[in-house]
Amino acid sequence: MSVRFILDGETVELRDVDPTATLLDHLRYRMGRTGTKEGCAEGDCGACTVLVGEADARGEAVLWRAVNACIQFLPMLDGKALMTVESLSRDGALNPLQACMAANGSSQCGFCTPGFVMSLYGRCIGASGRELGVADILAGNLCRCTGYGPILSAAETVSTLEQDDSALLADLNALAGRHGTAGRHGERQWFAPRTPDALAELLAAHPDARIVAGATDVGLWVTKGLKTIEKLIFIGDIRELRTIEESDEGVRIGAAVRYADAHATFSRLDPALGELTRRFAGLQVRNAATVGGNIANGSPIGDGPPALIALGAELTLRSLSGRRTIPIEDFFLDYGRQDRCTGEFVESIWIPRPDADDMIHISKLSRRFDSDISAVCGAFKLTVRDGRITSARVAFGGMAATPRRAPACEAALAGAPFTQDVIEQAAVALRTDYRPLTDLRGTAAYRLDAAANLLRRLWYAAQDESVSVLQLEAADG
User: pLDDT tens-digit profile of 123-139?
Assistant: First the structure.
């Protein structure tokens, strides 16, 4: 079968599609759209930013999102619309945003400029992330000439633009279908089911297939690791896996919900979880990466799992034979090993709503504040009643082969008064919970010190006090 998408009002149909061919390579080498640049080939610099649009669930509006073309596989574009930087000036005249950036010197060497233009144009037309500040929207775009000032100025000068998507919406609805697509390229196969039942059947028939949601991790296996994947199942178009259900008891997140779409819900659940989500890579990555994928890949430094473990989340796994639900911490068995049986997939995540007595604190340490993966991520949920800690859940990423709770630290906290002395005792106990590795993100000693300091930061936050690095170093002796 073919991959069909709409580019500048025309339907593009591709046959015999390599399932791991990237959108970036296709644009540059097959379509001659060289405005989309390759800077890093790992979704980090934003030079390859394009806009992808799809009809909403009711088919009433086009929803746009900025993504990194370097780690988007071509089958993921099926049934969608695409805009590149060339789309903005098809008649030879500059778009108002482009004209403003040119007039105020927002481009220096120019290499990164198309990516910045696409991110800002998405903001102008109300794409995903429009509620964020300009700096947050551009956190996934890097300018190596350090020309951010004029770029930010242009963004404030041209902040909204009109775009008529009525004709495009009709075309997208005509492309839409509830029947899955599939393809073959030589001996390699790919599938794109549209329902959870179809996904379960595919996994039963092809247990060796690689599930791909946003490709923000798997994409690097191909672009950086040069890995060949024989079978892929793309799940991004299964609407049932992209639902969010909120209630007084908690939130149920479908596994294929993108982090950008979960941000507002997570912020309502707890501000600390919302802030962690805001710092989850750049907007382009959050527009592709899914909550379930961040769990299912089992990375020991994934940002989401420590917070979800601390909050007491549960994971529902599904297969052709039925469903089972487990505490999320039980899913992570060892490095590269998860409790997912043959034919199973992550269907949803349940997060109970914190009580009024619950104190939530989540801290992420990374070498770069924005758009970077964690060196250490600590998440704490303490229930404090009448000045006493009645229960404690503490979890860390970057401290072990998997995201993991800290039982000795929890034992030192639970049942004790909520005092600074108790926090210090728990910080000492925390050092017995982990034996971290030394790698390029930090030494083992750094990680142990940092984890203890993140617990101390919880104390200072509870006192509404700011805390400096010197205070933490002094407290650590």
Answer: 999 999 999 999 999 99
Structural domain contains residue 431: yes
**In sequence order, what DSSP letters do the residues of 408-469 get, joined into one string?**
HHHHHHTTSB--HHHHHHHHHHHTTT--PPPBTTB-HHHHHHHHHHHHHHHHHHHTT----H
CATH number of the domain residue 387 falls in: 3.30.390.50
The answer to whether residue 180 sits within a structural domain is: no
DSSP H helix total and E strand total for the chain: 17, 20
Six token digits for residue 186: 């030589």
Cα–Cα distance measured from residue 70 to residue 23, given in angstroms and rounded to the nearest whole number? 6
The H or E element spanning position 67 is strand 62-68
Alpha-carbon distance of 318 to 323, in angstroms, equals: 4
Rounded Cα gap, residues 188 and 170, in angstroms: 33
Distance CA 428, CA 476 (A): 9
In a domain, 189, yes or no: no
Residues whose CB falls within 8 Å of the CB of residue 450, separated by 6 or more in sequence, listed in order: 365, 375, 376, 442
Quick check: is 206 in a domain?
Answer: no
Measured CA distances, 161 to 112, 125, 377 (Å): 22, 6, 39
Residue for token digits 């593009």? 12
Three-state secondary-structure class, residue 42: coil
Q: Are residues 77 and 144 in the same domain?
A: yes
Domain residues for 271? 239-352
Per residue in 353-401, pLDDT tens?
999 999 999 999 998 888 788 899 999 999 999 999 999 999 999 999 9
Number of domains, the chain: 3
